[in-house]
Amino acid sequence: MREVYIIGVGMTKFGRLPEKTLAELGREAVWNAIRDAGINPKKIQAGYCGNVQGISLWGVFGSGQVVLWEVGIKEIPIMNIENACASGATAFREAWLGVAAGLYDMAVAFGVEKTFVRKGAMIDIGKGFFENRMGNNMPGEFALRAKRHMHEFGTTTEQLAKISVKNHHNGCLNPYSQFQKEFTVEEVINSSMVADPLTVLSSCPNSDGAAAAILTSRSVAKKHCKKPVRIAASVLRTGSHKNDRNLAVFDVELQAAKEAYDMSGYGPEDIDLCECHDPFTIAELMHYEGLGFCKIGEGGRLIDQGEVEIGGRIPFNPGGGLLSNGHPVGASGMRQIVEIVWQLRGEAGRRQVENPRIGLAQIMGGGIEMDVAAEAIHILARD
Amino acid sequence: MREVYIIGVGMTKFGRLPEKTLAELGREAVWNAIRDAGINPKKIQAGYCGNVQGISLWGVFGSGQVVLWEVGIKEIPIMNIENACASGATAFREAWLGVAAGLYDMAVAFGVEKTFVRKGAMIDIGKGFFENRMGNNMPGEFALRAKRHMHEFGTTTEQLAKISVKNHHNGCLNPYSQFQKEFTVEEVINSSMVADPLTVLSSCPNSDGAAAAILTSRSVAKKHCKKPVRIAASVLRTGSHKNDRNLAVFDVELQAAKEAYDMSGYGPEDIDLCECHDPFTIAELMHYEGLGFCKIGEGGRLIDQGEVEIGGRIPFNPGGGLLSNGHPVGASGMRQIVEIVWQLRGEAGRRQVENPRIGLAQIMGGGIEMDVAAEAIHILARD
């Protein structure tokens, strides 16, 4: 398979955007990526769209076609991918595969979602599952994980809260982020309880938004792009409860991270920044461990010692994460890719990590009942 | 890219199956395909699932993971694909791509859907579209096409009705088909009007069902399978209203068919049978023309002269089509693949076409507003 490069990225601001349709959000992100790449959109030979709730919330099937029709891209193969929170990352992976295989010379991958329907509404896409019907929704799942992690490793509510404080701080440096407000540890801990120990400010909001990337072969990238970013690894994996449902460890992530490091030839010591899946504070802390930046159980130390801040040893979510950007489900995985590309090109403004060469994007989708449905890891590198 | 072969297929009976969940339907089809291939399911390295309404009707996201979890297939990459009626065919295409690229040595593609919610309910997944809100649902769209075809080419209601008669006849020969009843031309014409000139018996029903195929490389297929079926072409294309919205011609299909014939090295004269998208009678007639089996406007002659019957020059929908099998949206494209594999292997029982060597599967998804969202054509060949 061929090496694949990203030559353009773009996104919308994330947030509550009732004035914009799903098609308009997607169009804005895709056009921004096309302009960033400086290409003629007619060069794009395939489109992959990550979307979860287009049909269920808005009566829109074929989100990818709807968006690209608005961009003026027609006739090519267009596919819509659903993999829960990992939908955008999975669309990106399939676009990578198409270009890597040589089936397409250029493809656009994007994620788009409108999840905000009304204040206080929770995403309700799991009612077909037994555990959901028994009351175990997403906040409940991550609260169980948090409680178990605290029990096994002594992780504290303060440590979890510091992750929210950090990500909201980073979000203030990111003009695309939904939240633009600093919070203190006390404010996070004392905000309304959602599922003990997770409060409102320990949780990501429902949001609208879209993000996109243009992928192409090495030869095209090297000819047309000053700062191409190489896709060094693309890994997708489903969980298996191999660890006997030990909720304090993402077993699937240990395997997926190993695969991604093997595929890229890099190790955790080579990674300069991470964008990870932080729908709740505990998730980010578990990813410090799952991705190999510390031993299992030591995540709390990383946030205490500032290692995951911008300027620290391994900045996590310099873009603000889901906690600050919000979580348009199908778009979040693509937003991470966009942020890493901006960081690797040195275009991340006030939240710029110092001279990064390699970045890692991690996102997962799915719930407890059948473990994690989709763990996606991408490693991107500046040559 | 490598040549890819199908070494096993399986499906459920299609119909109203309220006693079976989406997971159970998918499991049955995938297990049937695994048993047919005679492989250890642990050999499967990726899963692609076509599904449209899992979230909107049943609150089940990650249908592919849910199904494969029940089969006992975990840890591997699993992706869910939505492309309206072409979802199953698109899942199959992506699995083909993964094996062709060499990323996977063996993959399972399947489609699964439960659309039957109550008698008389129509599939309502397009309410986000302007033309749908103005009243133009799927029966309306195809009725417009029928009226235009009749106006331009003199096609008659009798000719359209004969397609329903033929497909219901073929369905009686297919134990997997929802309908097992013969109808006369008069009965089709005199059944309740849905959208003039299309009656209830000119339309496919909502149904539940699943279908699956195991794909692998040439070397594995030749070693482990007595009757491997080669994927000679996989084409996916989005429409563009290039023909100025001439509703009597599927312009996108003329392009897609040309691509598929070019890719396979075969022409219409080489094709021994077709499974095509016949949600309404007019659709099948237009596919006679769009796929190149007669000139534009001459479709009526093919049905009048019996050329599209089993035993005719080019049997269309020997399995009974959507008109007889029903239309579990995400599964129909995969059912076509299964039927063609059975036909090419000589295992189609009473509906067997005589010694076929090459079969073509065509399905399309999407509506008028942005033309056809996805036209998928696969050509399968017995070596």
Structural description of this entry:
The first copy, chain A, has 2 domains: 140 residues, Thiolase/Chalcone synthase (Peroxisomal Thiolase, Chain A, domain 1); 225 residues, Thiolase/Chalcone synthase (Peroxisomal Thiolase, Chain A, domain 1, 3-Layer(aba) Sandwich). A 9-stranded mixed sheet of chain A has the order 3-2-4-7-1-8-11-10-9, sandwiched between helices. In chain A, strands 5-6 form a two-stranded antiparallel ribbon. The mean pLDDT of chain A is 95. In chain A, strand 10 and strand 11 form a beta hairpin. Chain A is of the alpha/beta class. At the A-B interface, helix 2, helix 3, strand 3 and helix 4 of A face helix 2, helix 3, strand 3 and helix 4 of B.
